[in-house]
């Protein structure tokens, strides 16, 4: 049976005699156990398939991809190189190995190989799969900003204050990519000091307050007020409020200008009026140094009152950049400002729920301990160790004594220590004890609460999650909590941060695109056009809202690939060339029959981020689909790959080749062929969309041909055909990559060989439920990878506990 292999692979002669005899006798296999039985099965059942379909490319001489079957004399050598066989597994699963021109294995043999790798090579026990292990995860910038806001009520701009997070497996919340340097720790300490100084009031009491925000204002035409008031025209903002008692009141108006640096600042006059009486007109300068807090003292009678704010340009509007804007952050009304109406400030009660500290030293120390324990419990996302609370208390009291500080200032010092602690900056996870030998332990319920909240909300658990974890009842209420969390507005974070990185929609606002060069390449050099920030932001929202629509209504994931609707406003519809859209806000819009739009591949986000600054890039677009929609493994680009433009030299003088001709010429080079036959058909199918996502029928006068054939054999005429193929024949590949991406984001580590059973189970569940997204979400939350860990993690957690 192995004569052909034996002729070409002399390593088989080196196998133990017992194994060679066993291979020749099926009956003997019954009596073999352990590695010897694995050797028999490997030689008798697996090697003939590898000989037929794989050996031509993976013998010792060819060794394509650095993988040679001659390196594996015995099954022991196979099982000791799991990472190489994981790569082989993924290529087999994606049907890109063997290549089309070779003799592929039958469907039965391919499945036999895949199951053998999972069962024998990866040693996966479906009843007790290895959940893997996540290193202690530092909060990334988004998580840090959100968590700090939940704790203090102060929203910082982490993108300005902290360095960019490194990414792993496409996401910036992967534990292994999130390092901490001494410089970063210094920044955390500085931020904590600044935030606490702003958030802890110097005075504990205040008069009754009510707050108006931009959403509470209307225009003179009774239309909702735009959040941003441009400096280029006059704006009038109207709002009403009521007071119960007559008396003296104070108004504090916080007007913010957007961050925009220009040596020639915009200027405006801003006027505040109550019931038609002006309280004063002031200069507002669009500058980082501009004073934007306005305070007024006035007397009000009980009843309803009208507030009017007018912003009038006080500058040559032709010189004002459209990015110069003001925003009504808040209008706070305090009063009556008189004896008997003082209340504990909510900002003060956030930290000191029982008010100012008592004078008695023992009572003061006990109060400090309660305050610090309460804050540390929230910040650490689990009850702090009593010893740690004692140290924090002594540190706070010591600061009060040695630095002659107030009680609040001493506590703030200890708060800073908490917010600079690894217990806050890292998500430390502990496990539940188990009596079952060899079983992987469950993470405890505090860790589970944190995994849920950072998965769905990108922030810390709320009080309900924490209370359930404390009572040990979170797991038994898990599905109900997932449903509650997904209904919370904070769940939009999963669109911003998961979808924003999976589909790269976070990048479109800043991607560099040369509008003039792009349009010139389309044969429209005279068209004046600018891809505005409003259109870019609408593109980002289109992608995120498409995902949230699928999530909120438990629709099929296939609708992200091929749908008869999208989300548009007037500006984005005009950019796409879609008529009949007049609304300014983003809304769900049904597309006409036969539309090329619909689905993420035809949205401006993906089309823009997968283009070059001056033209489309079929390579980038094709690679994006392979990596994010099909999950097809792609080898790294070889060194010294020639630029695409060099292929123009192969054409006659005077002939301007279109993109398809350039790609075909580029692909003729042996160095480029193997990768481009996978990428090019996919990328060229999107060639009707230029680098800004605008539709075009031709490129510089040459009709565009978007047809092609996938490496797996499916033919298509245009992007509509391709979308149907991806959503039907290749849907399992799509389900698999979405499952891998979402699980990576949810657990903070890359998918590895021991996850193959979990991923396959998720794919099967999706396929049996028509791809409904909640099947995937709940499947991940209930998976061993999300619920369990390797026991070594608890040893480290215990060692670094608090």
Describe the structure.
43% of the residues lie in helices and 12% in strands. By secondary structure, the protein is of the alpha+beta class. The chain starts with a helix and ends with a helix. Residues 1-33 and 793-802 have low confidence and may be disordered. It is flat. The strands form 7 sheets. Strands 3, 4, 6, 9 and 11 form a 5-stranded antiparallel sheet that branches. It has a 4-stranded antiparallel sheet with strand order 5-10-7-8, with no helix packed on it. Strands 1-13 form a two-stranded antiparallel sheet. A hairpin with a 2-residue loop joins β7 (267-274) and β8 (277-285). The protein has 32 helices and 19 strands. It folds into 5 domains: 3-121, no CATH class; 205-344, Galactose-binding domain-like (Jelly Rolls); 346-427; 499-729, no CATH class; 737-799, no CATH class.
Q: Report the count of strand segments.
A: 19
Q: In one word, what is the shape?
A: flat
Low-confidence runs (pLDDT<50, min 5 residues)? Answer: 1-33, 793-802
Largest sheet: 5 strands, antiparallel
